[in-house]
């Protein structure tokens, strides 16, 4: 990975705290501009857009954001509506809720809204995604796979994501749903990609300089497949257990940073320790 990160991302593993300390959502507000932020809540992933959008609106109002737009792009006609493009252009942060990541890519792909989103990212607008909204951030996303199972061939379905974070595969609700097996499968099939598994109430803030910092109450698991010395992923039969040797694994808690260029953990962020 090199020079693949253009703007600012906060990628959340789902089930982030919305009632108590709200550590992750407070960070979203801070990076978005505080009370002066214009936050757009993108509810395309969910089939309950009004309920989910209103829930996040109330949380962000409580955290001091004054300008919040709820944007339910529910079909491709909506995604090509210049009014929705205008809302994206005026945002300081865009927040993708959870739901179904395929709804996001199938509705936005190749539309004016998708182009506006990428243009916003290139100019530094903060892009945030939680749960399904997290998976969709990468260039290749996990669509479906077995939980709490060892890595097996042909049990993982992947598709193109939004492509905001290249050369990475994001998985969410990671430890809570036992998803290491499916992320190992993804890395075995794409060893040049980083596998990034984000726990619930945990997030990574990705900086334009190609590193990320962990925020939240749990941890992030990073799988580096470049060091793999053997795998049977190309020879094994469908549903056969995979043999994978010498994967590099990092477990990263809050405050630590990970350099995506060197693929190494760099210790705690000094700025975070001072806060």
Structural notes for this entry:
This protein is an alpha/beta fold and 275 residues long. 27% of the residues lie in helices and 29% in strands. The protein contains 9 helices and 17 strands. It has helices spanning 23-32, 49-62, 76-79, 82-90, 101-108, 112-122, 132-135, 180-189, 270-274; strands at residues 8-12, 38-42, 67-71, 93-96, 126-130, 140-144, 157-160, 168-172, 194-198, 202-207, 211-216, 219-224, 230-231, 244-245, 248-253, 256-259, 264-268. It has a 9-stranded mixed beta sheet with strand order 3-2-4-5-1-10-11-16-17, sandwiched between helices. Strands 8-9-12-15 form a 4-stranded mixed beta sheet. Strands 6-7 form a two-stranded antiparallel ribbon. The longest helix is centred in the N-terminal third of the chain and has 14 residues, at 49-62. The mean pLDDT is 94.
